[in-house]
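Response to reviewer comment R2.3. The reviewers asked that we include at least one raw input/output pair. We reproduce the pair for Lipoprotein here without editing.
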Amino acid sequence: MLKRKHLVLLMCGIYSCALFFMSCNDDDTLSKDEVIKEKLNEVRNITSDIRTTEKAAEKGWDEALSECVEHPTEGAMGYHIARMEYMDGRVNHKEPQVLLFAKKKNSEDLELVGVEYIVPFGIHPSSKEAPELFFQKFHKNMDQEIWALHVWTERENPKGIFYDWNPDVSCQ
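Raw output as returned:
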């Protein structure tokens, strides 16, 4: 009788473990695209009330890094407004180092069009593996001595959300 009791307990344990492992299958995990979409929505929520450079300054993005940056054939990046306290090597989607602003269509007013994540080479040398965010590797900008990743959160980029230049952004 004792052997039978042990066998029943053993079978119950095996069955319980099987149910546990079946409930932990990959169907409950998010795909890369779903994770990216979720993180982009978090970025958009953080910047949702920042529509002007004045509002950006109130929120801590108050250092103009550049005039409007434009490529002769690729489009533009716009104006780069930085939050210098974030230029410490952090790679956190909720803390973009730079907000990108560009002229509204048919207007001289600026609007938020995206964000940029920056890690200086002085903190993360160019000889090291590229930082990564949104499953995207940062690229080297040797002229600026930084790792950079642009994300077009507010203005669609026909070349892709992570492409540096946006043909739908202009400095003209």
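Residues 2-23 form the longest helix (22 residues). The chain has a mean pLDDT of 88. Further pairs are available on request from the corresponding author.
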